Amino acid sequence: MQQKKKCFVIMPVSKTKSCTTRQWTTIFNEMIRQAVAGSRLGFTCERSKPRTGNLIRDILNELNKADVVIADLTDTNPNVFYELGVRHTLRNRTILVAQDMKYVPSDLRSYWVIIYNKGLSGLQDFKNKIREVLKEMMKNPEKPDSPVADFLGERNISLLLQERAGNLRKLTALVGELSYNISLVDTVLSTVKKSEEARKKKQPQFVSTVRFANGCLSLLLSTRYIEFPRESLEGLTNLNSVLLSLNANLDLWRDSTYSNPVEKTLKQQLPTIKNSMGQILKQQNQVRLDYMNDNYQEETMPVLLLSSEEHKQYIEST
Protein backbone atom coordinates (compact mmCIF):
# COMPACT_ATOMS: atom_id res chain seq x y z
CA MET A 1 0.00 0.00 0.00
CA GLN A 2 1.35 3.40 -0.99
CA GLN A 3 2.13 5.61 1.99
CA LYS A 4 0.11 8.81 2.12
CA LYS A 5 1.85 12.16 1.85
CA LYS A 6 1.70 14.38 4.91
CA CYS A 7 0.59 17.99 5.21
CA PHE A 8 1.51 19.62 8.50
CA VAL A 9 -0.24 22.84 9.54
CA ILE A 10 1.40 25.52 11.69
CA MET A 11 -1.14 27.95 13.09
CA PRO A 12 -2.20 29.48 16.39
CA VAL A 13 -3.69 26.91 18.77
CA SER A 14 -5.00 29.33 21.39
CA LYS A 15 -6.81 32.67 21.45
CA THR A 16 -5.35 35.52 19.42
CA LYS A 17 -6.56 39.01 18.54
CA SER A 18 -8.73 37.79 15.66
CA CYS A 19 -9.91 34.34 16.78
CA THR A 20 -10.77 32.34 19.85
CA THR A 21 -9.26 28.93 20.51
CA ARG A 22 -12.52 27.37 19.35
CA GLN A 23 -12.49 29.37 16.12
CA TRP A 24 -8.93 28.23 15.33
CA THR A 25 -10.01 24.64 15.79
CA THR A 26 -12.96 25.22 13.46
CA ILE A 27 -10.72 26.86 10.84
CA PHE A 28 -8.41 23.86 10.91
CA ASN A 29 -11.13 21.19 10.86
CA GLU A 30 -13.69 22.80 8.56
CA MET A 31 -11.45 24.75 6.20
CA ILE A 32 -7.79 23.69 6.02
CA ARG A 33 -8.13 19.96 6.65
CA GLN A 34 -11.16 19.68 4.38
CA ALA A 35 -9.33 21.55 1.62
CA VAL A 36 -6.30 19.24 1.83
CA ALA A 37 -8.44 16.09 1.95
CA GLY A 38 -10.70 17.42 -0.80
CA SER A 39 -7.73 17.83 -3.13
CA ARG A 40 -7.75 14.02 -3.53
CA LEU A 41 -3.97 14.05 -3.94
CA GLY A 42 -3.31 11.50 -1.19
CA PHE A 43 -2.49 13.81 1.73
CA THR A 44 -3.17 13.42 5.40
CA CYS A 45 -3.46 16.69 7.33
CA GLU A 46 -2.39 17.32 10.91
CA ARG A 47 -1.48 20.22 13.14
CA SER A 48 0.60 20.31 16.31
CA LYS A 49 -1.13 18.88 19.36
CA PRO A 50 -0.41 19.17 23.06
CA ARG A 51 2.08 16.41 23.90
CA THR A 52 4.53 15.40 26.59
CA GLY A 53 8.30 15.52 26.29
CA ASN A 54 10.24 17.94 24.17
CA LEU A 55 7.48 19.80 22.31
CA ILE A 56 9.84 21.92 20.21
CA ARG A 57 11.80 18.88 19.10
CA ASP A 58 8.60 17.09 18.08
CA ILE A 59 7.40 20.06 16.05
CA LEU A 60 10.78 20.44 14.35
CA ASN A 61 10.64 16.78 13.42
CA GLU A 62 7.19 17.30 11.90
CA LEU A 63 8.43 20.32 9.95
CA ASN A 64 11.30 18.30 8.56
CA LYS A 65 9.28 15.20 7.61
CA ALA A 66 6.16 16.83 6.17
CA ASP A 67 5.79 16.71 2.40
CA VAL A 68 3.92 20.02 2.55
CA VAL A 69 3.48 22.62 5.29
CA ILE A 70 0.64 25.13 5.49
CA ALA A 71 1.40 28.17 7.64
CA ASP A 72 -1.40 30.46 8.82
CA LEU A 73 0.13 33.91 9.35
CA THR A 74 -3.01 35.55 10.75
CA ASP A 75 -2.23 37.85 13.70
CA THR A 76 1.53 37.36 13.11
CA ASN A 77 1.79 34.76 15.87
CA PRO A 78 5.47 34.50 17.01
CA ASN A 79 5.41 30.70 17.26
CA VAL A 80 4.03 30.38 13.74
CA PHE A 81 6.72 32.65 12.31
CA TYR A 82 9.45 30.81 14.21
CA GLU A 83 8.23 27.46 12.85
CA LEU A 84 7.87 28.95 9.36
CA GLY A 85 11.49 30.11 9.46
CA VAL A 86 12.60 26.63 10.49
CA ARG A 87 10.62 25.05 7.67
CA HIS A 88 12.10 27.46 5.12
CA THR A 89 15.62 26.40 6.14
CA LEU A 90 14.76 22.70 5.90
CA ARG A 91 12.63 22.10 2.82
CA ASN A 92 10.55 23.58 0.02
CA ARG A 93 6.79 23.13 -0.44
CA THR A 94 5.28 25.58 2.06
CA ILE A 95 1.91 27.27 1.51
CA LEU A 96 1.11 30.55 3.27
CA VAL A 97 -2.48 31.35 4.24
CA ALA A 98 -3.94 34.28 6.15
CA GLN A 99 -7.21 36.09 6.81
CA ASP A 100 -5.79 39.30 5.40
CA MET A 101 -2.77 40.26 3.30
CA LYS A 102 -1.72 42.73 6.01
CA TYR A 103 -0.42 39.79 8.06
CA VAL A 104 1.99 38.73 5.30
CA PRO A 105 5.41 40.44 5.40
CA SER A 106 6.48 42.06 2.14
CA ASP A 107 9.39 39.60 1.82
CA LEU A 108 6.90 36.73 1.53
CA ARG A 109 4.24 38.23 -0.72
CA SER A 110 5.83 36.94 -3.91
CA TYR A 111 5.30 33.31 -2.81
CA TRP A 112 2.18 31.15 -2.51
CA VAL A 113 -0.30 33.07 -0.32
CA ILE A 114 -4.00 32.21 -0.05
CA ILE A 115 -6.39 34.60 1.69
CA TYR A 116 -9.49 33.14 3.41
CA ASN A 117 -12.49 34.31 5.44
CA LYS A 118 -12.66 33.04 9.02
CA GLY A 119 -16.45 32.85 8.72
CA LEU A 120 -15.90 29.98 6.24
CA SER A 121 -17.52 31.84 3.37
CA GLY A 122 -15.76 31.17 0.10
CA LEU A 123 -14.81 27.69 1.29
CA GLN A 124 -15.00 26.16 -2.20
CA ASP A 125 -12.72 28.84 -3.64
CA PHE A 126 -10.24 28.17 -0.82
CA LYS A 127 -10.36 24.42 -1.56
CA ASN A 128 -9.76 25.03 -5.25
CA LYS A 129 -6.75 27.23 -4.57
CA ILE A 130 -5.24 24.73 -2.12
CA ARG A 131 -5.70 21.94 -4.65
CA GLU A 132 -4.03 23.92 -7.45
CA VAL A 133 -1.02 24.80 -5.30
CA LEU A 134 -0.66 21.20 -4.07
CA LYS A 135 -0.80 19.92 -7.66
CA GLU A 136 1.90 22.40 -8.70
CA MET A 137 4.08 21.38 -5.73
CA MET A 138 3.80 17.71 -6.64
CA LYS A 139 4.63 18.54 -10.26
CA ASN A 140 7.64 20.74 -9.37
CA PRO A 141 8.73 19.59 -5.88
CA GLU A 142 12.05 21.44 -5.95
CA LYS A 143 10.65 24.80 -7.04
CA PRO A 144 11.92 27.45 -4.58
CA ASP A 145 9.09 28.88 -2.49
CA SER A 146 10.89 30.92 0.16
CA PRO A 147 13.61 33.58 0.44
CA VAL A 148 15.93 30.94 1.91
CA ALA A 149 15.47 28.61 -1.06
CA ASP A 150 16.01 31.49 -3.46
CA PHE A 151 19.20 32.52 -1.67
CA LEU A 152 20.62 29.00 -1.63
CA GLY A 153 19.59 28.49 -5.23
CA GLU A 154 21.43 31.59 -6.36
CA ARG A 155 24.56 30.61 -4.44
CA ASN A 156 24.59 27.03 -5.71
CA ILE A 157 23.39 27.51 -9.27
CA SER A 158 26.90 27.93 -10.66
CA LEU A 159 28.11 24.80 -8.86
CA LEU A 160 25.06 22.82 -9.97
CA LEU A 161 25.54 23.88 -13.59
CA GLN A 162 29.20 22.80 -13.45
CA GLU A 163 28.22 19.45 -11.93
CA ARG A 164 25.54 18.93 -14.56
CA ALA A 165 27.94 19.77 -17.39
CA GLY A 166 30.50 17.36 -15.93
CA ASN A 167 27.92 14.58 -15.64
CA LEU A 168 26.83 15.17 -19.21
CA ARG A 169 30.42 14.83 -20.42
CA LYS A 170 30.74 11.55 -18.50
CA LEU A 171 27.50 10.21 -19.99
CA THR A 172 28.68 11.20 -23.47
CA ALA A 173 31.98 9.41 -22.89
CA LEU A 174 30.08 6.33 -21.66
CA VAL A 175 27.99 6.26 -24.84
CA GLY A 176 31.18 6.56 -26.90
CA GLU A 177 32.78 3.73 -24.93
CA LEU A 178 29.78 1.45 -25.51
CA SER A 179 29.84 2.26 -29.22
CA TYR A 180 33.56 1.46 -29.37
CA ASN A 181 33.02 -1.91 -27.66
CA ILE A 182 30.25 -2.85 -30.08
CA SER A 183 32.50 -2.18 -33.07
CA LEU A 184 35.27 -4.12 -31.33
CA VAL A 185 33.12 -7.27 -31.33
CA ASP A 186 33.31 -7.44 -35.13
CA THR A 187 37.08 -6.85 -35.01
CA VAL A 188 37.60 -9.71 -32.56
CA LEU A 189 35.31 -12.08 -34.50
CA SER A 190 37.19 -11.23 -37.69
CA THR A 191 40.47 -12.09 -35.97
CA VAL A 192 39.00 -15.37 -34.72
CA LYS A 193 38.01 -16.28 -38.28
CA LYS A 194 41.51 -15.46 -39.60
CA SER A 195 43.10 -17.53 -36.84
CA GLU A 196 40.91 -20.56 -37.65
CA GLU A 197 41.78 -20.32 -41.34
CA ALA A 198 45.50 -19.99 -40.57
CA ARG A 199 45.37 -23.04 -38.32
CA LYS A 200 43.84 -25.13 -41.11
CA LYS A 201 46.76 -24.12 -43.33
CA LYS A 202 49.27 -24.96 -40.58
CA GLN A 203 50.18 -21.28 -40.39
CA PRO A 204 50.85 -19.24 -37.21
CA GLN A 205 47.66 -18.31 -35.38
CA PHE A 206 46.27 -14.82 -35.16
CA VAL A 207 45.54 -13.16 -31.80
CA SER A 208 43.72 -9.93 -31.05
CA THR A 209 45.74 -7.08 -29.60
CA VAL A 210 42.66 -4.95 -28.82
CA ARG A 211 40.85 -4.92 -25.47
CA PHE A 212 37.35 -3.90 -24.48
CA ALA A 213 37.15 -0.57 -22.65
CA ASN A 214 35.33 -0.17 -19.33
CA GLY A 215 36.82 2.97 -17.79
CA CYS A 216 33.70 5.10 -18.22
CA LEU A 217 31.45 2.27 -17.09
CA SER A 218 33.58 1.64 -13.99
CA LEU A 219 33.48 5.36 -13.15
CA LEU A 220 29.68 5.36 -13.27
CA LEU A 221 29.40 2.25 -11.12
CA SER A 222 31.97 3.39 -8.55
CA THR A 223 30.85 7.01 -8.13
CA ARG A 224 27.15 6.85 -9.11
CA TYR A 225 27.38 10.44 -10.35
CA ILE A 226 23.76 10.05 -11.44
CA GLU A 227 21.31 7.58 -9.98
CA PHE A 228 19.80 4.79 -12.07
CA PRO A 229 16.89 2.41 -11.37
CA ARG A 230 17.91 -0.96 -9.92
CA GLU A 231 17.29 -2.85 -13.16
CA SER A 232 19.54 -0.52 -15.16
CA LEU A 233 22.28 -0.63 -12.52
CA GLU A 234 22.23 -4.41 -12.45
CA GLY A 235 22.48 -4.52 -16.25
CA LEU A 236 25.47 -2.15 -16.23
CA THR A 237 27.14 -4.11 -13.41
CA ASN A 238 26.72 -7.35 -15.34
CA LEU A 239 28.10 -5.76 -18.50
CA ASN A 240 31.18 -4.59 -16.60
CA SER A 241 31.79 -8.15 -15.41
CA VAL A 242 31.35 -9.48 -18.95
CA LEU A 243 33.88 -6.98 -20.33
CA LEU A 244 36.43 -7.99 -17.69
CA SER A 245 35.87 -11.65 -18.54
CA LEU A 246 36.27 -10.98 -22.27
CA ASN A 247 39.55 -9.16 -21.70
CA ALA A 248 40.78 -12.08 -19.59
CA ASN A 249 40.00 -14.41 -22.49
CA LEU A 250 41.78 -12.11 -24.93
CA ASP A 251 44.88 -12.20 -22.69
CA LEU A 252 44.66 -16.00 -22.51
CA TRP A 253 44.40 -16.20 -26.28
CA ARG A 254 48.10 -15.49 -26.60
CA ASP A 255 48.88 -18.88 -25.09
CA SER A 256 48.58 -21.42 -27.91
CA THR A 257 47.51 -24.04 -25.37
CA TYR A 258 44.24 -22.19 -24.87
CA SER A 259 43.71 -20.72 -28.34
CA ASN A 260 41.08 -23.24 -29.47
CA PRO A 261 38.79 -23.04 -26.40
CA VAL A 262 39.17 -19.25 -26.26
CA GLU A 263 38.21 -18.82 -29.91
CA LYS A 264 35.26 -21.19 -29.44
CA THR A 265 34.09 -19.20 -26.40
CA LEU A 266 34.41 -15.88 -28.23
CA LYS A 267 32.47 -17.17 -31.26
CA GLN A 268 29.66 -18.42 -29.04
CA GLN A 269 29.36 -15.45 -26.70
CA LEU A 270 30.21 -12.32 -28.68
CA PRO A 271 27.09 -12.16 -30.93
CA THR A 272 24.79 -12.28 -27.89
CA ILE A 273 26.99 -9.82 -25.99
CA LYS A 274 26.95 -7.46 -28.98
CA ASN A 275 23.16 -7.49 -29.00
CA SER A 276 23.03 -6.75 -25.26
CA MET A 277 25.54 -3.92 -25.63
CA GLY A 278 23.38 -2.46 -28.42
CA GLN A 279 20.36 -2.37 -26.11
CA ILE A 280 22.39 -0.78 -23.31
CA LEU A 281 23.85 1.77 -25.74
CA LYS A 282 20.32 2.75 -26.77
CA GLN A 283 19.22 3.09 -23.14
CA GLN A 284 22.25 5.11 -22.08
CA ASN A 285 21.99 7.46 -25.03
CA GLN A 286 18.36 8.11 -24.07
CA VAL A 287 19.51 8.85 -20.51
CA ARG A 288 22.08 11.26 -21.95
CA LEU A 289 19.45 13.03 -24.05
CA ASP A 290 16.97 13.22 -21.16
CA TYR A 291 19.67 14.53 -18.84
CA MET A 292 20.76 17.13 -21.40
CA ASN A 293 17.15 18.30 -21.81
CA ASP A 294 16.38 18.29 -18.05
CA ASN A 295 13.90 15.43 -18.50
CA TYR A 296 15.77 12.76 -16.56
CA GLN A 297 14.20 11.82 -13.22
CA GLU A 298 16.79 10.35 -10.88
CA GLU A 299 15.85 7.84 -8.23
CA THR A 300 14.92 9.68 -5.02
CA MET A 301 16.74 7.09 -2.91
CA PRO A 302 20.07 5.58 -3.96
CA VAL A 303 19.81 1.95 -5.02
CA LEU A 304 21.86 -0.46 -2.92
CA LEU A 305 23.48 -3.25 -4.90
CA LEU A 306 24.74 -5.87 -2.47
CA SER A 307 26.98 -8.72 -3.58
CA SER A 308 24.95 -11.10 -1.41
CA GLU A 309 21.43 -11.11 0.03
CA GLU A 310 23.01 -12.20 3.32
CA HIS A 311 24.62 -8.77 3.65
CA LYS A 312 21.21 -7.16 4.27
CA GLN A 313 21.41 -8.27 7.89
CA TYR A 314 24.44 -6.04 8.47
CA ILE A 315 22.71 -2.98 7.02
CA GLU A 316 19.34 -3.57 8.63
CA SER A 317 20.94 -3.99 12.05
CA THR A 318 22.63 -0.56 11.95
Summary of the model, kept short:
With 318 residues, the chain is of the alpha/beta class.
Textual characterization of the structure:
The protein is α/β, with parallel strands linked by helices and 318 residues long. The chain folds into 2 domains: 141 residues, Rossmann fold (3-Layer(aba) Sandwich); 162 residues. It is 58% helix and 8% strand. The chain has 9 helices and 5 strands. The chain has a 5-stranded parallel beta sheet, sandwiched between helices. Helix 3 links the parallel strand 3 and strand 4. Helix 5 packs antiparallel against helix 6.
Task: State the main characteristics.
318 residues; alpha/beta; Rossmann fold; 2 domains; five-stranded parallel β-sheet; 9 helices
Layout of strands and helices, then pairs:
Elements: E1 5-10, H1 21-38, E2 43-47, H2 55-65, E3 68-72, H3 78-90, E4 94-98, E5 113-115, H4 123-139, H5 147-200, H6 215-223, H7 230-252, H8 259-292, H9 312-316
Helix pairs in contact: 1-4, 2-3, 5-6, 5-8, 7-8
Task: Please give the number of β-strands.
Answer: 5
Q: What do the pLDDT scores average to? A: 88
CA-atom Rg in angstroms: 30 Å
Find the structural class using helix and strand composition: alpha/beta
**Count of separate structural domains:** 2
Shape: rod-shaped
Strand content: 5-15%
User: Number of helical segments?
Assistant: 9
Name the helix and strand elements from N-terminus to C-terminus, one letter apiece.
EHEHEHEEHHHHHH
| Unreliable residue runs | none
Biggest sheet strand order reads: 2-1-3-4-5
Main beta sheet strand tally, sense and closure: 5 strands, parallel
Helix fraction bin: 55-70%
The separation of the N and C termini measures 26 Å
